[in-house]
Amino acid sequence: MLEALDALTKNKQPFVAFKLPNAKEVNLYYQKDDQLHMTFDFSEAGFLMAPFSDTDFYSYIPSTYSHRFDLPSEVSIVRSGLTISDDNQKPFVSLVQQALTEFENTGLKKVVVSRVLAVTASDKNPTQTFQNLALLYPTAFVYYWHHPATGSWMGATPERFANLEDNRLHTIALAGTSSVHEGQKATWTPKEIEEQQLVTDAIETSMKTMFPAVQLKVSAVKSIQAGALWHLKTDVQAESTELSISKVIKALHPTPAVGGVPKDESTAFILKNEGYDRKFYTGFLGLFEGDSNADLFVNLRCAEITSNGYNVFVGAGITSKSDPINEWKETQRKAKTFCQAL
Length: 342
Fold this sequence. Notes:
By secondary structure, the protein is of the alpha+beta class.
C-alpha cells in the first residue's frame, strides 16, 4: 500500500485512500490524469471533499479506478522528528472571550472556534502517517486525499455527517470533550452536557424545517471513546422520501458541532473573527453514488500537508459556561490525536 501511494504522489496523480470505521482494509480511488472533477448535483459517484465555506460545487475523485489493500495487523508505528509551533494561546483565548461577549449581546448560544498548529517534520512521510492513523484509530474514518489542484489532506475523524440510503438517514450529534483515564468512566460538566443538548436540538430543528414530514428517532446520550478522548454522542435517525444529499447538506452543514447555534449567526462570527481560512477543515468528505446514497463524515482531527510538515487544525465548542483557558487546553488534547501519528 505505501509503495502504491508513494508512486501516485511522485507521478502527481490525484488519489484518495480511506478506511471506514472498524474496517480492516484500505480503499483507494485514483485518477490517470490530473483533472479536478467537480459536482453540483451529485449525479456522479466517487469520493467527495467539501470545504467549510458555503459552495455550490464540490471536488471529488471518481470511483472509476480503484484498489483495495489489507491493513497490516502487526506493524510498528513509525514516527518522524517533530517541531511543533504552538504559541498562539493569547489570540485563541482572546477569541473565546470575544465569543463570550457575543453571547451576552446577541442570540448566539454556541460557536466553535479553531486554530492551526504548524508542525515541522524533519523526515515527513505522509503515506506512513496515514497508515499510522489507520492503525492507531480503528473506530475512526481515516483518509488521505491528494490532488495537485487542492493540496493534500489527511485525518482520522470520529464524526459521521450523514449516511443516506433507501430514504433513511443516520447522523449524529457529537459534542463535549474529556480526557480518557485508564480504568475510569467519562465525567461531564454542566457546560459539556448543555453543549451536547444544543447540538442535538439544532439538528432536530433543522431536519424538521427542511423535511416537514420526516420521521425522527433520537437515541439517548452516551459516552464514546475516540483515541485518548471521550465525547458525548446522540444518534439521530430520519426517514423520508424527500431525503437527498443536496437537501441534507443544506439542512445540516455546518453542523452545530463545527459551526454553532444558531447556524447562520455562528458561521458569520467564525468567518469574521477566526482570522484564517479553514479550507477543508470542518467540511465534510466521503463516498457518494448519485444524490440519494452517501456515507459522509465531518472533517475533524485533520491536517493539511505542507512543504515541510503539517498544518494541524483543532477547535473547541464555546458556550456561555466556557472557561477560555480550559478551551485552550481542550484544543491541545485534540491536537495530540493527529500528532500521535507523526
